[in-house]
């Protein structure tokens, strides 16, 4: 059986840095954000069919000129309307779950890097430990703005959506299996 660790925490807290340190110790990391980006393109037609009417009402264009999904525009739409985020998750999560389970099956020491892993309890049950990475609000805001080049209003919406993240994990994971890392 594989050893599995979850690395989670809010946006721009330093999860990727923690994963890079674990990789130096022989762990193999899978980034759920990257898998989500790939999954969105795999089910692009389904996503566009569901969301184009909402996007048009908000004057948001969901595709780039080459036809690929504009993830920033999709994020703007989804974080403005949480009910749409749930619909998108129901479309892409089954793909992500399968990919991560295959990753775990082929790596004896696996790390799942995922902000909202609690939304996929079937994956969370594989984890013997949850490393919850956090950082001060303004440090995270500065990092996210520099990295993602999103308007502050979008960043505030995303931060607000993640405000109770630790509590969600504490509902599902025994306290002794959660380690908080201040980054």
Task: Describe, in short, the structure shown.
The chain has about 180 residues and is of the alpha/beta class. It is about 55% helix and about 15% strand.
Write structural notes for this entry.
The chain has 183 residues and is an alpha/beta fold. The chain has a single domain, classed as Rossmann fold (3-Layer(aba) Sandwich). The chain is 57% helix and 14% strand. The protein is built from nine helices and five strands, in the order βαβααααβαβαααβ. A five-stranded parallel β-sheet has the order 2-3-1-4-5, sandwiched between helices. Helix 4 crosses helix 5 and helix 4 crosses helix 8. The longest helix has 25 residues. It starts with a strand and ends with a strand. The relative contact order is 0.22. The mean pLDDT is 94.
């Amino acid at each position: 059986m594989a050893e599995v660790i979850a690395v989670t925490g809010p946006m721009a807290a330093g999860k990727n840095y923690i994963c890079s340190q674990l990789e130096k110790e022989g762990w193999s990391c899978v980034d759920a954000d990257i898998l989500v980006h790939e999954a969105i393109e795999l089910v692009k037609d389904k996503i566009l069919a569901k969301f184009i009417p909402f996007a048009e009402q908000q004057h948001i264009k969901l595709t780039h000129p080459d036809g690929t999904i504009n993830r920033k525009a999709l994020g703007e739409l989804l974080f403005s309307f949480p009910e749409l985020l749930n619909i998108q998750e129901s479309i892409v999560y089954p793909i992500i779950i399968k990919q991560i389970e295959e990753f775990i099956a082929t790596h004896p020491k696996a790390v799942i890097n995922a902000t909202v892993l609690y939304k996929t309890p079937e994956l969370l049950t594989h984890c013997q430990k949850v490393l919850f990475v956090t950082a001060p609000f303004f440090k995270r805001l500065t990092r996210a703005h520099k990295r993602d080049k999103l308007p502050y209003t979008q960043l505030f919406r995303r931060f607000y959506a993640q405000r109770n993240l630790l509590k969600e994990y504490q509902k599902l994971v025994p306290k002794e299996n959660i380690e908080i890392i201040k980054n």
